[in-house]
Amino acid sequence: MVQEEVRTHTAVHVLKGAVQSVLGAKWTASTYAAGTHGRLTVQFDRKPSDEELARVEEAANRKVTEGAEVTEFDMERHEAELHFGDSIYDLFPVPDTATMLRIVRIPEWNINCCTERHVESTSLIGPLKLGKVRFRKSRRELEIEFELADLTKWNR
Ligand SMILES: [Zn+2]
Question: Helices (DSSP H) in the chain: which residue ranges?
Answer without folding.
Answer: 4-23, 50-66, 77-84, 151-154
